[in-house]
Structure formats: C-alpha cells, structure tokens
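Quick one: structure tokens for this chain, please?
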Amino acid sequence: MALYVKAGKLTGRVLAKALQAALRRMKNPKAKRGKQSVKSLARRGGSLQNIEITDSNIKSFERVARKYGVDFALKKDALGDPPRWLVFFKAKDADALTAAFQEFTAKTLGRKREKVRPSLLAQLSRFKELAKGAPTREKHKDHGGHEL
C-alpha cells in the first residue's frame, strides 16, 4: 500500500487524517456508478434487464441517466437499418430508469416540436414585407414635428 500526502507542513494531525481517509477507502471502495460495461454491471450481482432505444442521440440519455443515478450499460446492435441500442440496467434501478426515460423522451419530443416552428429568417422577411406597406411619416418643415 502506498500513501501520498501533499501538505505544506507534515504534522502528526495531517498524517493521522490521511491514514483515516485511507482506511475509510479500503473499507468501503467506491463502486462504479453510471455508465459501465455489461460485464462489470453483471459482476456486481442482481438480475439484469434491458430495453431497446432506436434514437441515435444516445448522449442525451447518458446525461439524464447520470442525473438520476442509474447504473447502466449500453450495447450497440448494428444489425438493423437504424442501429439499435440496448440499455442494460439492474432490476432495482427500474423506477429510477423509468423516470429517466420519461425525461429523456420529453427532451427528444421537445426538440422535434421545435423544428416545426418557422425559422427566424422567414419571420424577418415576412415582417419586412409588412413594414413596406405601412404608412410612412413625413416631416413637417414649419414646425419640425411629424405629420401623417
């Protein structure tokens, strides 16, 4: 075992705290969280379940799954015309994964709805045409004010 401590002055208290932290890590090693391989997910025990995603934007799913703390593994199945993704997860994470998928589908559907909106350039050109037909204001030279 190697212990590395970076300190300005190595005192007994600093060394004691470093040894306590090392002992805590040895007793409770951090398990992998979030995205991992199918093999490491299966090794941690419990039954695995999987669902299929056909969306090509899998990165946004990864962000949402990390937000909900779901342990999952992605496997690409390239046999189909659009590649399918299989998402493996633990049976105990089913509720969290359901919530993550609801948010993920809301995001993807929201993006599709945004594409239906007209473009900003089209709206600008339409307003330019409307502005051409608007009455112009003429300046009255006697008073310096505007007159319609």
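Helices lie at 12-27, 38-43, 58-68, 94-116, 120-132.
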